[in-house]
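Appendix B: complex inputs.
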Amino acid sequence: MEFRFTAEQEAFREEVRAFLKQELPEGWATLPGALAEDDYAFGQEFLRRLAPKRWIAPAWPEEFGGLGLGLWEQVIFNEEMAYQRAPLLNFAATGYLGPTIMMYGTDEQKAQHLPGITSNDVQWCQGYSESEAGSDLASLQMSAVEDGDEFVINGQKIWTSQANYADWMFMLARTDPDAPKHKGISYFLVDMKTPGITVRPLVNMAGQAGFNEIFLEDVRVPRSGLVGELNRGWYIATTTLDFERSSSSVYGQYRRSLEGLTAYAKETRWNGGSLLDEPKLRAKLADLWIELSILRYLSYRVVSMQAQKQVPNYEASIIKVFNSEYSQRLANAGLHILGLHGQLKGDSPHARLAGEFGRTYLTSVGATIAAGTSEILRSIIATRGLGLPRG
Ligand SMILES: Cc1cc2nc3c(=O)[nH]c(=O)nc-3n(C[C@H](O)[C@H](O)[C@H](O)COP(=O)(O)OP(=O)(O)OC[C@H]3O[C@@H](n4cnc5c(N)ncnc54)[C@H](O)[C@@H]3O)c2cc1C
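Resulting structure:
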C-alpha cells in the first residue's frame, strides 16, 4: 500500500520547506551548529520567527494560538522541521502538556497557559522522575500539603530536561500519603520563579547540560495550579506520557542522518570501488532504510488514531521502543562506517558529517531510558496490547 498526501497537503509541505530555506542559515542541516542541541539562543531566536505564523503548534485550535490545522498537516510540519534540523524547543509543552491541558484543564488554565506556549514566551519542563521513582513513577515522594487555598510542596525531582531554561514546570506530587500509591498523586503547574525552587544542571556524557535536579522547599502553589481533581493526577500523567511516547517528529531527523551516511559510503573510495560496494555494509544500510519506513508507518498508525480522537496507549509504546532502539542502531552503524573519524566533534577539520554520529552514539543511549525504558514499554505492550498476564 502506498500512502499519499493530498495536493493541498503537499503544497503545505512546500510552504514549510520554502520558509525553512529562507529562515535557516545556508546549508544549515549539514553544519555542526544544527546538531548542537545546546545552542539555545539560536533556537529561541528561530522560534520567535515561527510564532507570528502560528507555527509553534499549527494543529492547535486558533483560540490558543494555533492554526487549527489537521494532524496530518502537523505530521508534515514535524517531518520537514526535523529533516532540516530546525531547532525544536519547548517540545514538552507543544507535544504533550498542551494537549493534556486541552483535555483536563479548566477554562482559566487553558486561557492562562496555552497562548504563552504558542507565542513561545513560556518554556516548560516535565517534573515527573525522582531518584527513587523512575520506572516505578507512582512511588514518587514529592509531597504537596493543602494549606488554605494553596499547596505547600517539598521534595526533589531529577532528570528534568530543560529545567535550566524553563519558566514553568508540570509536575506530580503526593497529596494523600495514606492512599494506595496511584491514588494519592496530583498534577500541578508550577511557576519556576516561585520562592523555594533551586535548579542544578546535570551534564551528560556527551557534555550537554540537558537535564537537571530540582529542589523544592516550602514552595507555595495556588489551587489554580492543580490540574484535574485532587488525588487523580496519575491518570492525567499517563495521558501526558501517551502523547509523549507517540511523538512523530523523529522520522525526518533520521532520514536526514541516513541520507548523509549513505552518501558518505557512496563517495568514499575503498578497495578499488566505494564503501557502498561492501556487501555487509550495503546490507546494513538497506536494513536501516527498511526500518525507517517501518518507523514512519508506525507513527502514521498512531496519528490516524489521534485523528479519530482516540488516545493511543500500547501503540504509543510500540513507537517509542522502535524509535529509540532505531536511533541506537543508526548511531552504531554510523560510527562503524565512519571509523575513528566518526568520533571527532564537529569543530574538528577531520570530523566526518559534522561530528553527528559521535554525538548521537552518546546521546542515543538515553533514548531507551527517557519517557519509559524499553523494558517497561515492552511490559505495557505485552499486557495491554497482547493481553498477556502480568509477570
Ligand atoms: C535523556 C533523558 C531525559 C529525561 N528527561 C526527563 C524529564 O524531562 N522529566 C522527567 O521527569 N524525567 C526525565 N527522565 C527520566 C526518565 O523518565 C527515567 O530515567 C526513566 O523513567 C527510568 O527511571 P530510572 O532512571 O529511575 O531507572 P529505574 O527505574 O531505576 O530502572 C533501572 C533499570 O531497571 C529496569 N526496570 C525497572 N523496573 C522494571 C520492571 N518492572 N520490569 C523490568 N525492568 C525494570 C529499567 O528498565 C532499567 O533498565 C529523562 C531521562 C533521560 C535518560
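The radius of gyration is 22 Å.
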